Amino acid sequence: MPSLVNWLFRPAEADTEGLVEAAPVMRVREVFQRFWPDARPFRGWLALSLVLVLLAPMLETAGIWLFKVLIDNVLTPRDFDAFPMIAAAYAAITVASGVIDFSQQYLTVWIGENFLHRLRTKVFAHLHTLSVGFFDRRRIGDTLSRLTGDVGAIESLVLSGVTQTTSSLIKIVLFTGVLVYLNWQLALVSLVAVPIFWLIARSFARRIKDASREERGRTGSIATVAEESLGNAALIQAYGREQAEVDRFSRQSRGNVLAALASARVGALFSPLVDVLEVLGVMAIVGVGIWELAQNRITLGGLLAFLVYLSQLYTPVRSLGQLTNTIFGASASAERIINLLDERPLVRSPEHPTPLGRARGGLQVDEVRFRYPGTTADVLRDISFTALPGQTTAVVGASGAGKSTLTKLLLRFYDPDHGAIRLDGHDLREYELDRLRANIAIVLQETLLLDGTIADNILAGRPDATEQQMIEAARAADAHEFVQALPEGYRTRVGQRGRLLSGGQRQRIAIARAMIRDAPILLLDEPTTSLDAEASRRVLAPLRRLMSGRTTIVISHNLMTVADAHQIIYLDNGAITEAGTHAQLLTNNDGYAHLYHLHHPADRHQPPASAGADSQGA
Ligand SMILES: Nc1ncnc2c1ncn2[C@@H]1O[C@H](COP(=O)(O)OP(=O)(O)OP(=O)(O)O)[C@@H](O)[C@H]1O
User: Fold this and answer.
1) Could you tell me which residue ranges the ABC transporter domain spans (predicted)?
2) What is the pLDDT of residues 88-134, one digit of tens each?
């Protein structure tokens, strides 16, 4: 027997690695307080729905009362006279109940869905306020599962929870009142069972919450594996890792099954326990009722009506218990949402920002030191250099030296731990984030395209640009020709992440986007690395057009376009070890020169002036 009980209450085995971050545990009351303000716009409708909730049990009570009248005034005396009235009243009550039920159900769904829509959008909007660092840390699949699955559970806690609890309480009060009115001795016997119900429901609530928490976490893990795996389908198939991925998915899915079973065991036990209790209660009452009937202290109609009221009373008591379980289950989901909402962006706009229109574009990096949050080593150390407006600075160095990290600091995806980056003499942190980023255009190594049309992607750089400006930008980016050759021209969809275009085409769209943005600062992070020699050459002329007149920071590790930069900064393991022009650094014959000769063995004995043109195809 004890082993059976153990089995019933056993939590899901933790035989799969936990993939998702657990949310902090919260009390139901805190969860409720947290989300109640979100229901504010619906409070009027909620009040109306409560009125309907109030009317329904009243009609129900009246209906059952008619049943008593029918037995005592029609059936027992075998007198037909009162019947038509009773029948008409019964029909009227049934129709009215129907109308109220419909309105109440529809209203509840309407409020619930609109509340959900608002909350979902709020969580999504919040995610977009978070710094890029958040997305580096979190598993996207789990975040998606929170956004789609867990948000729904909150509705059952905050809205349906309120109406259903109120409805159940009203029914309990009404039916108890009538029971006491019919025969108080009998009523007393039947109410003994109520606190027992309540105790059982309470003891179940915590277990159900634990089980639900486990289940929601596992659902997040499934979504995480699916997202990571399907997102890398090409890689997985190329390396024949399909089965390994299926196994990984299956393990997470199995974990979910175990958690769902553990939750079902606890949940399903509740009903039968309550059933047994109910039957015992009814038997006891019938016994006492027969006694009362024999003593003539209650009529037959009275006794039958009493039993019907009683059965009606158990329904709300029971659903109140069930509801507690639902609410505790839902609060496990709510914890996961609160956990997301409590994430604060690492970088924020200041309260009193320095106004920034179009920047002149002078950049000054001053003793910057930086390490990624949660790591132990500095990625950048004492970085100082100045980029004059309109000039090109090339940042060069081995893989992992910290070049891309520098661009992340310039875009304020992160802030330096020490030192400052200044734009036109002011610390980047003094400007509003939007204004700062509006002054920067980027072209990255792996071009990011949105799933939309080519026009959407170019106009993302400046949504208010005209069609003519867009075409000019595309021309300057050497993209107009190939775009026109596409079946739907600028209206052609590029597919998810631009998969329907070639690497070089994607890059030229990105250049057009940067072109149309017409920002004074340009960040190029290895813009030709992923392209072959021919494609890089094709991209180079538009890139040069884009760079002219803008403060450009170009990161490159194959030294393309670097040779004619105004200054070159050589990063080694997070620190600047050399700085100067191409010719100066070649003369130094240190890290930069070595890297350069590695890429251009043929140039070793040639004068540096010709190097820029030759380096294009590297
Ligand atoms: N989000 C991150 N969290 C923690 N560490 C990171 C993160 N991004 C990069 N790093 C670490 O910072 C260091 C510098 O990375 P960074 O991407 O800036 O190098 P890089 O010079 O641009 O390299 P590559 O030329 O290969 O692109 C690396 O050691 C890397 O492991």
Assistant:
1) 363-598
2) 999 999 999 999 999 988 998 899 889 989 999 999 999 888 888 78
Task: Tell me the residue ranges of DSSP E strands in 398-547.
Answer: 418-423, 426-427, 440-443, 521-525
Residue identifier of the C-alpha nearest atom 4 of ligand 1? 372
Q: Pairing between strand 567-572 and 521-525?
A: unpaired
User: Same structural domain for residues 119 and 252?
Assistant: yes
pLDDT at residue number 364: 93
For residue 278, is it within any domain? yes
The pTM assigned to this predicted structure is: 0.72
CB of 400 closer than 6 angstroms to any ligand 1 atom? yes
Cα–Cα distance between 156 and 153 in angstroms, integer? Answer: 5
Ligand 1 in reach of 401 Cβ (< 6 A): yes
375 pocket-lining for ligand 1 (C-beta < 6 Å) = yes
- Which percentage of the chain shows pLDDT scores above 70? 92
Residue 349 lies in a domain: no
In-domain check, residue 496: no
CA 250 vs CA 46, 218, 231, 244, 488: distances in Å: 43, 12, 17, 10, 42
**CATH code assigned at 256:** 1.20.1560.10
Check whether residue 372 and residue 292 sit in a common domain. no
Q: Is 449 in the pocket of ligand 1 (CB under 6 A)?
A: no
SS3 521: strand
Q: 197: domain range?
A: 25-341
Pocket test for ligand 1, best of 137, 403, 528 (most atoms within 8 A of CB): 403
Instruction: Determine whether the shortest distance from the Cβ of 379 to ligand 1 is under 6 A.
Output: yes
- Residue 571 alpha carbon, nearest atom of ligand 1: 21
Number of domains in the chain: 2
**Contact (CB, 8 A) for 563 and 615:** yes
> Does 493 map to a domain?
no
ipTM of the complex: 0.95
Beta carbon of 373 within 6 Å of any ligand 1 atom: no
